[in-house]
Amino acid sequence: MSAPVPLGNFDWEPASWRRHAAAQQPEWPDTGAVEQVVDELRRQPPLVFAGEARSLKASLAKVVEGEGFLLHAGDCAESFAEFSADSIRDKLKVILQMSVVLTYSTGVPTTKIGRIAGQFAKPRSSPVEKRDGQELPSFFGDVVNDYAFDAESRRPDPQRLLRGYNQSASTLNLLRAFTKGGFADLTRVHMWNQEFVASSPEGQRYERIAAEIERALRFMSAIGIDLADAQSLHQVDVWTSHEGLVLDYEEGLTRRDSTTGDWYDCSAHMLWIGERTRQPDGAHVEFFSGVGNPIGIKLGPTATPEGVVELAEKLNAEREPGRLTLISRMGASRVRELLPPLLRAVREAEHQVVWACDPMHANVFKTESGIKTRRFDVIVDEIEGFFAACREEGVWPGGVHLEFTGDAVTECLGGSDTVLEEALTTNYMSLCDPRLNARQSLDLAFHVAELMRDAWLGPAPA
Ligand code: PEP
Ligand code: CO
Asked: Given pLDDT bands bounded at 50, 70 and 90, which one contains residue 8?
């Protein structure tokens, strides 16, 4: 294929990724059936509009300048079975609560992006799974195959992509209703505190902020400010995102924007490229180089300064601020050593990007009884290391990328409600990675707010 050209990739088309090696793609048993599904996706309405993706890019451009913070959070993997209005509402409550804590404590606006309405497909470290001598394809997420361990369930079925599209459409529909139709109105700030959260120390701390916000709103109203007119009190933007993994799906939902003539992947506002699919000459980088959405790239311990700059050139040669979010996931023990050279190289190459910290994906371990988990204090430690690295290099610590659920699950250890190892099995729901529960998420937001205040105000006097 073409050598990189400085002013964009002229050979790009929605299907040009097919000329590149594509990691982590399902082995669809019947290629004709996939082609039919991609055709059908092409005929479906887009889930998001190009103009929305551009608004999100503008909001992320503020983060690049240090005038905003990115809260990028949601499920590890959405599922067909765990799909309900309540679970969408409860996730939204956590995002709204966390963003209130971050914004109220720091005075910096929060750009909110959910891992939601399309976060189905999962990259796997091994394409096959073995149990009791039987070997079957790994579970690649509900849009590819079924979790149950038998040959029929694990066979990739492209019809699942259509079901994923439809579930994403319903999820987004409800999300738009909640965020624009009154539920996210700041006067309802108390109602986002779920019962099982409100009784906890972090829930009570949240209540105090909520009470102060209410007092401020009453004050403004008392001095004659017309709050009914202030749109930003009554509606919020919660943008959607997922890992752009299954390229048949992403291609099928790619549309040319009628106002600019540019291509956008209309499956979500933002897409990110995972740690396992960020090969500079690979299909994912090729595909996302040609769409106008904001794009994220996960960067794990093998990322090199030259490699990261190469990716930034391929995906954002024009250096458009807000286009690229680099998501560091180095592990708590290595972030302080591995991140500074990357921050430096990107700055020296004059790439303006959002730097975000994913403190989840390099801190997973198995307990002695074989349960996949993460420790709350290690998660906090990676975020602290990220802030320290950013401070060292004079780079704005732009955001966090988290896996949580609104439910009272027991998947991650620790936090102020101290989930103990024995308790892990009491409510372990995840089909994939362990997620923070609503209390742990709120607790984490307070930690991040404190780190942000320090970053904003500079180092504390000795
Ligand atoms: C994920 O975000 O769910 C994921 C698989 O992350 P990573 O690509 O960083 O491993
Ligand atoms: Co995950």
From this structure: low
- Whether 374 lines ligand 1, by a CB cut-off of 6 Å, is no
**What digits encode the pLDDT tens for the residues 287-320?**
999 999 999 999 999 999 999 999 999 999 999 9
Query: For residue 338, is pLDDT > 80?
Result: yes
Burial track 2-17 (b if 16+ CB lie within 10 A, e otherwise): eeeeeeebeebebebb
Q: Kindly report each contact of residues 257-265 with a partner whose C-beta sits within 8 Å and lies 24 or more positions away, as own/partner.
A: 257/50, 257/51, 257/292, 259/50, 259/51, 260/50, 260/292, 262/50, 262/292, 263/12, 263/14, 263/290, 263/291, 263/292, 264/46, 264/49, 264/50, 264/53, 264/291, 264/292, 264/293, 265/291, 265/293
Q: Which atom of ligand 1 is nearest to the CA of 277?
A: 8
């909640």: which residue's tokens? 178
329 lines ligand 1 (CB under 6 A): yes
Q: CB of 78 closer than 6 A to ligand 1?
A: no
Interval 218-259: pLDDT, tens: 999 999 999 988 888 999 999 999 999 999 999 999 999 999
Across 279-300, b (16+ Cβ under 10 Å) vs e yields beebbbbbbbbbbbbbbbbbbb
Whole-number Å distance between alpha carbons of 374 and 381: 12
pTM of the model: 0.95
Which amino acid, one-letter code, is at 277? T
The residue nearest atom 3 of ligand 1, judged by CA position, is 76
pLDDT range class, residue 10, cuts 50, 70, 90? confident
